[in-house]
Amino acid sequence: MNRTLRGGKKAQFIHTGRISAGYRTPGVAILGSGNPPAAETTIALDDLLVASAFVDNLDEIMSQYDIRGPIARQIGQSLAEFYDRRIFRVLDRASAASAAVTGEPGGFQINLGANKEYDAQALVDSFFEAASILDEKNLPKQGRTAVLSPRQYYALVSQVDSNILNRDYGNSQGNLNSGEGLYEIAGISIKRSNNLPFLAGNVSSVNGENNDYSGNFSTHCGLIYYKDAAGVVEAIAPSVQTTSGDVSVMYQGDLIVGRLAMGCGTLNPAAAIELQSARS
């Protein structure tokens, strides 16, 4: 869930529990006494995130290739990867959190077994277990996503001896030639990322973070979640600035700066599931 922040450093997100239904008694007034329990979560903006590079005028003149384009792309990629890593850590933390509203379900972890992070059958079984858990929590079927490491994803595609590709997951799966062998399992869309805290151990907070992204990720090997598991607040969208005028004359070159101001936090722990692989 995303929210654009203006005129403040934090944003509040409301949580509500369930309302009970019941039969009306003739002659008894309906007074609206079934208000659901409610709670609030606050997500703060982290400090301004920047990535920069200097392009010297003479180097640019002598170069036989474009310099600025690749630099701008690398700056944008560095900003995206920086926050991808933090969002995935927040989703991991959500899987171990209790609900903000009393009586509502919290997060969940699925243990694949010792050293089974690349075991295709264990991964497939975890998808069906996760789908069952999300169904039992009455979460919508649309918007469910899994994120695996690239090596896990290709293990799913390549281990045909485990009958992974041939089982009836749907008629719109990919193929071995493209490497896009599976798009979803049990209605859960599959994505790949190198930014998961994959068996990452302890990760500490750093200066500039105003939300908690730290944790012990020693057994982490994937995420399955519904889209409202975490919230993101954004004050400055990813953008690139370039110096010009007197500054360019003074330094005989241009400074290219990418910037982003956002923060991330847990919203609905019930929507987050962590895949774990115990270490033997």
Helix-strand string = EEEEHHEHEHEEEEEEHEE
Q: What would you report as the Rg, rounded to the nearest angstrom? A: 23 Å
Alpha-beta classification: alpha+beta
**Percentage of residues in strands:** 25-35%
Alpha-carbon distance between the two ends? 37 Å
Number of strands: 14
Shape: globular
Mean pLDDT: 88
* Strand arrangement in the largest pleated sheet: 5-14-11-6-8-7
Largest sheet: 6 strands, mixed
- Helix proportion of residues, in percent? 10-25%
Structure, described:
The chain has 280 residues and is α+β, with helices and mostly antiparallel strands. Helices cover 24% and strands 30% of the residues. The chain has five helices and 14 strands. The chain has helices spanning 57-62, 68-95, 120-136, 150-158, 246-251, and strands at 2-4, 10-16, 38-44, 49-56, 108-111, 144-148, 184-185, 188-192, 202-203, 215-216, 220-226, 230-242, 253-266, 272-276. The protein has a six-stranded mixed beta sheet. Strands 1-12-13-4 form a four-stranded mixed beta sheet. A two-stranded antiparallel sheet has the order 2-3. Helix 3 packs across helix 4 (150-158).
Write the SSE topology.
Elements: E1 2-4, E2 10-16, E3 38-44, E4 49-56, H1 57-62, H2 68-95, E5 108-111, H3 120-136, E6 144-148, H4 150-158, E7 184-185, E8 188-192, E9 202-203, E10 215-216, E11 220-226, E12 230-242, H5 246-251, E13 253-266, E14 272-276
Parallel strand pairs: 1-12, 5-14, 6-8
Antiparallel strand pairs: 2-3, 4-13, 6-11, 7-8, 9-10, 11-14, 12-13
Helix pairs in contact: 3-4
